[in-house]
Amino acid sequence: MSGYVEVLYVMFAMVLVSVMVQNANRVIQTNNVTMVEGQLEEQVVAVAQDIIAEARALDFDANTVPGAGSGNSTVPVNIPDGFSSLGPGSGENSRDDFNDFDDYDGWTETITILGVEYNISCEVDYVETNDYSTFTTLSGGNKSTLKRLTVTVDNDFLKKNSSEENKSYSFSFIRSYYAD
Amino acid sequence: MNFGIIISYIVAGMLMISILTVSNSMSHNSSELTTTQIKKLHGQSVQEMISFDLPKIGYQQMTTLSTKFATADSSTISFYSNLDNSDDESVEQITWTLTTTADTETDNPDDFILRRTVDGTDTDIKMGVTDFDIRYYDEYGGNTPMATPVSSGSFDDIRQIEITVTMESGYSVDTRPGVTNYIMSTWTKRFSPVNLREE
Hints:
The structure holds two protein chains of two kinds. By secondary structure, chain A is of the alpha+beta class. Chain A is built from one helix and four strands; from the N terminus they run H-E-E-E-E. Chain B is of the alpha+beta class.
């Protein structure tokens, strides 16, 4: 029996080592996920900033777009009621057709950067002008001189903890007609 | 020597090999993670500099410069701006280019010196930049970049500038002897400078 006592010791050691290896693998996996997530989150921020900067470069409203050929800005008679309703106008079906800030309302697109797909969705709202803490969304077709663009980006490799659901990253920008 | 002891030695040897392999993997993974973090910090520094300069293309106090670009190529961009917002309205020429000069201070043979020049004053950025790709678009949200180098007659058509910066670590995080593994970090951003808007 004496020879088999050593075997039992070794088997016990194997169990200990197995637990150690499993823990080590878990650490390595966590590190790898952290590395990949860091890279992807950096790009998520860049993508959202791209969309916000692009929307900022356009006119505030469809009714303030300079007249064709004249180059002169137009101004609605009644502000803010003279502003357009949110969303793209007729014939504005893609980003390169957009000509004002709120054309991005309801726009969704999947863009591929370096082989990785990013799902983008945008929402534009008129927001309250005298509520600088929460910027409450105006409803019922009410308009104001402030518009908020919210860009939401997600990616199939960025998941919520212990879930198969994609993690969404939202970025908001509020634009004022008077500070354009 | 009895049979049990022989088996014990064999199994103990296997355990030793397992422990050494795990230790090696942990060590490699740890250095990979640390290098990634360092590369990320380097990347953020370059991003901050680029993001400071590019949105100001064509900027002048109370107006927009009529001449905005000097060069618009795939790895070089040179533009004008009152970068420091000086009251004397002096205009600076800013150039970003990926030189063909290899960074000899690193082991990586693929990294080159990224150079930022403001009115002739060079700042060499030696942070392992292996690729610096610039694309120009003549419409917002467009998918087809303009042909490079953009001719001076088409400078006024530029609306957006997309930059991809790829950086690699200066040393290899080896997995096996003789196999090089440089940690890579890539960042792509499309800028929409307000002064490039159609007037």
